């Protein structure tokens, strides 16, 4: 029993250490980016931003054009299985005074 308890404690300690390691790696990458940005010329940065095509609408599905300002990332359908569509569209006025339609469950 004591050996199993020791193994469980070590496992939890390693998980916490791994999470800290990931956090420090992200912080280090952010530091590298912020230190490198002043060396990038404005014209090169403008070309990069233009190449992202953030003004174009992102296609959610075939024929389903979504919002602007996004990057489309393709992934296998089995990566994140969902049984309920999470994108909801409501037609009509965009006025803040207009009420949302009732949800159907």
Protein architecture, described:
The chain is mainly alpha-helical. 43% of the residues lie in helices and 10% in strands. The chain contains two helices and two strands. A two-stranded antiparallel sheet has the order 1-2. It starts with a helix and ends in a 37-residue tail after the last strand.
Helix coverage percent: 40-55%
Q: Encode the helix/strand succession as letters.
A: HHEE
Residue share in β-strands? 5-15%
Total number of strands: 2
| Gap between N and C termini | 49 Å
Low-confidence stretches: none
Rg over alpha carbons: 23 Å
Strand order of the largest sheet: 1-2
The average pLDDT score comes to 85
Tell me the major beta sheet.
2 strands, antiparallel
Assembly type of the chains comes to single chain
* Rough outline: flat
How does the helix and strand content classify structurally?
Answer: mainly alpha
Determine the number of helices (DSSP H or I, runs of at least 4 residues): 2
Question: Notable features of this structure?
Answer:
105 residues; mainly alpha; two-stranded antiparallel ribbon; 43% helix
What order do the helices and strands come in, and which of them pair?
Blueprint: H1 2-36, H2 42-51, E1 57-61, E2 64-68
Antiparallel strand pairs: 1-2
Quick take:
The protein is mainly alpha-helical. The protein has helices at 2-36, 42-51; strands at residues 57-61, 64-68.
